[in-house]
Input
Amino acid sequence: MNKNFMYGIGAVKYKDFIVGYIEKGSFDLGGVKPEAAKVEAEQVPGTPVLVIPQSNGNIAPTFNVIQLNYENLHRLLGGTLHYKPDDGEKQTPTGWTAPSAAMLMQGPWELALVSGQSILIPNGTLLSNLGGKLTLTETAKIECTLEVAMPEEGGQPYGVFDTASLPSEWTQYKLPASPEE
Output
């Protein structure tokens, strides 16, 4: 792989599970650009004489989950799963109902890229809702925004690393486990 490029969302991971299929073309790193205060002087028209940084840029990924089995609805939106009575040992959900209160999914996230890197987010909060269109050419979806915040114990809000060699100092964030672990 050419490590000079970052592309392709391979998996979105939160704690102990991998989020389902992401709608093609829906994943956007989003976020805000860096901000700075520009100080201008009358004697120097058209160009600031001083630029004072105010804030770094940040990411706020948005994406649509289109794999809407009952388990994904429950994991990403909260609520209650419903089962057939006496379904044996392995209970298979037969329905889902929405939560009566807002659900908070906050903690470590990993965005595993097809290009071989991972974006690690120690403290992300998922905001999601059921949306989309119910037509014969589109599917319903869970519309997601992942808000990135500083870790409570300090550190960096996110980092980009080779997926095969994640740094040991990031293990303190209890990032999602790899499927082979």
